[in-house]
Design brief:
This protein has helices spanning about 40-50, 95-100, 105-115, 130-145, 160-180, 215-220, 225-230, 240-245, and strands spanning about 5-10, 15-25, 30-35, 55-60, 65, 80-85, 150-155, 180-185, 200-205, 205-210, 235, 255-260, 265-280, 285-290, 290-300, 305-310, 320. The chain has a 6-stranded mixed beta sheet, with helices on both faces. A 4-stranded antiparallel beta sheet has the order 2-1-4-5. The chain is globular. It folds into 2 domains: about 5-230, Rossmann fold; about 235-320, Beta Barrel (OB fold (Dihydrolipoamide Acetyltransferase, E2P)), CATH 2.40.50. α3 runs antiparallel to α5. The chain is built from 8 helices and 17 strands.
């Protein structure tokens, strides 16, 4: 086991901001913790990395205790690298002088780090002269020069456009391949980590609600909050589901949740198209009939005010909670 935590709590005054009974990850695993803003993700990640105080609980890294910040001089743990949202570069340093500060690694390791992070051309620039993306790569290189086995990245995709997000993912894959590093990423945007993570944990109000593979929590979430966090869903009763799609659900439950991509449309019918919004690779449609709202997707634009019949393939039956 690479990292293990038990009975972790953190308080802000009388308020409990983190309350996690159990967490673990294996060597070589890509783990993501997702949740809305204020869910406690960053606080929990910093506790795991040894950079934030906890009220109770134990954290073990490779079987060794990660000390509470009150029990050590420097808020860090050997073998764990933590990259904050602010990057926290030293001002008035050139990139080269910033990187060699406290670094005692081989020349080969240093050159590999510069190459992977694509910052060799920035060595003589001041840290205050870097763009946001360049600062992130320099900060990441600084951590890699400490040779961590685990990288904890707090909201690394924030303020990045789609192109730079893909570049960052490629960078993380290169780090994993070259150095064998494990990753724990914190994100409030699930779509940034679902294609990448082996395991996804969902947090709300300081608690871990659900854990599993990206596909399992997307297609079979156990709670409504998790379902809605991962994308738009539409709520249907068992009767509505049977009447709309003329099919019998496999198990009768009070409420079913349906994602728009499960639904296709054919022209004609009783469902009026209220909205058809362009989303890039598809159009997201919202339809209404007899007090019920339903979402669907189309690869071509459709005219609002026209009527359609929704169709649902049985192999794409909606999930229930």
């Amino acid at each position: 086991m690479l990292l293990q935590a038990e009975n972790i709590t953190k308080r802000h005054g009388q308020q409990v901001t983190v309350n996690v009974a159990s967490f673990s990850m294996q060597q070589g695993e890509r783990v993501a913790i997702i949740g809305s803003s204020g869910a406690g993700k960053t606080s929990f990640a910093r506790i795991l990395a040894g950079t934030a105080e906890r009220a109770s609980g134990t954290v073990l890294f490779q079987g060794q205790p990660v000390l509470n910040t009150t029990d050590k001089l420097l808020p860090e743990h050997v073998g764990i690298g933590y990259l904050s949202q602010q990057y926290e570069l030293r001002n008035n340093y050139t990139v080269e002088s910033y990187l060699v500060f406290r670094v005692k690694l081989t020349e080969e390791w240093q050159q590999k780090t510069l190459e992977i992070c694509q910052i060799a051309h920035l060595l003589h620039r001041k840290t205050t002269e870097l763009s946001g993306g360049e600062k992130q790569r320099v900060a990441l290189a600084k951590i890699l020069l400490q040779a961590p086995q685990l990288l904890v990245l707090d909201e690394p995709f924030t303020n990045l456009d789609n192109w730079h997000k893909q570049q960052l993912l490629q960078l993380l894959e290169a780090i994993e391949k070259t150095f064998g590093t494990s990753f724990l990423i914190i994100s409030h945007e699930p779509q940034d980590v679902l294609p990448w993570a082996h395991t996804v944990h969902v947090m709300q109000q300081g608690n871990l609600l659900e854990s599993g593979s990206a596909t399992s929590i997307y297609y079979q979430p156990s709670q409504k909050y998790v379902a809605e966090l991962l994308g738009p869903v539409y709520e249907l009763t068992h009767l509505q589901l049977s009447q709309i799609f003329t099919l019998q659900a496999p198990t009768e439950r009070p409420i079913y949740y349906l994602r728009p991509q499960y639904v296709t449309l054919t022209a004609g019918g009783n469902w009026e198209l209220l909205q058809c919004q362009f989303k890039g690779s598809f159009y997201e449609c919202i339809l209404h009939h007899n007090g019920t709202t339903l979402g669907a997707m189309s690869v071509t634009p459709l005219t609002t005010g026209t009527f359609f019949t929704p169709y649902l393939e049985e192999k794409l039956l909606p999930f229930w909670l």
